[in-house]
Amino acid sequence: MASNGNLADAGPFVIAFLLVLAISFRGFPMLRGLTFTTCILSVAATALYYPHYFKAYNGFEFAALITPLIQIIMFGMGCSMGLKDFIALAKSPKSVVVGVLCQYTIMPLLGFILASYSGFQPEISAGIILLGCAPTSVTASVMCYLAKANVVLAITITAVTTLLAPFLIPLLMKVLAGGFIEINVLEMMWGMVKMVFIPIGAGLLFNKFLHGKAKWLDDSMPLVSMIGVAFIVAIIMAAGRDSILTIGIELIIVVFLLILLGFFFGYWLARLFKLSEFDCRTISITTGTQNAGLVSGIAKVMGKIATVGLATAICGPIMGFSSSVLASFWNSNPPKEAASIAPTDK
How much is the mean pLDDT over the chain? Predict the structure, then answer.
């Protein structure tokens, strides 16, 4: 039906096709990394075709769930972190510093430049800048593992950029996005402390004192986090459906450029600092892989989930696809030299 121009009636077929595609990817090692991305695409398609299911139920607005879902995801990240991750910071501070520097200079500037020339309405442009100001996503570690890059370095960069986020994001947004929308620095900072520090701190304590004692929780947290991300994407896509249908292609191009240029400049800035090929690839992936879920929470705190949160909703599938392709390419072309920090089991 979609081929005959009846795209509006093709919802069930599009959703079913994406789900079948995701399942089929599980049977091919080179494509397995695209499984979650394709599932997210099916969730996004479902939210666009049937937005009313993801807006409210009996008067309860699902957007209210975004902040607790982010807190659960951050708790899961804290549970996966330990003393070894911070020892890695002391062993190779140069690589970590370069990675953090790339995340909080390259990406915010790219977001500002792309937003300034995009011509979108101010709140959507501010969302692009906010996406550029985000810390590294936890999925960067997975992609670095698939790429045979430096997993421990990726974990450390993710931890440091996330812990710095409550302080740096409000300040960067005030400087770069202040011309688009009003930014309340203290309110944004406090909202991020509640979404980041408290749940990560709880996760670290859990990892320290209860790791291995509640195996069901250890095993379930990755799945819970993935379901949380999927539901957040669905809520934002449903809330911003009208805007997405109006400017969807243009916004997809801008977000894709943000991610792609992040990979490119992250890699070459690391090369400029004479890091190993392993670390250059790691920093490339961590730079272009943004924590879209956290940005969704910030947009919710700002009360602008349907506009500021739009770039985030589109980012998830694009980021997953592009980083999976890059990881698969590097997996097939491993570097010759050894990593400065060898990946280790947690």
Answer: 79
- Start-to-end CA distance of the chain, whole Å, equals 49
Mean pLDDT calculated for residue range 114-130: 88
Q: What is the pLDDT of residues 135-148, one digit of tens each?
A: 888 778 767 776 77
Domains within the chain, CATH numbers bracketed: 65-332 (1.20.1530.20)
Give per-residue burial for 106-140: e unless 16+ CB within 10 Å, then b. Answer: bbbbbbbbbbeebebeebbbbbbbbbbbbbbbbbb
Rounded Cα distance between 139 and 307, Å, is: 24
DSSP character at residue 340? S
For the chain, the farthest-separated pair of C-alpha atoms sits apart, in whole angstroms, at: 60
Is there a contact between 259 and 288 (Cβ–Cβ < 8 Å)?
yes
Query: What letter represents residue 327's amino acid?
Result: A
Q: What pTM was computed for the model?
A: 0.71
Give pLDDT tens digits for 43-86. Answer: 878 888 888 888 888 888 887 887 788 788 778 767 766 666 66
CA distances from residue 14 to 3, 17, 34, 286 in whole angstroms, order as listed: 11, 5, 17, 31
Tell me the helix, strand and coil percentages in the chain, rounded to 5: 75, 0, 20
E strand segments, the chain? 56-57, 60-61
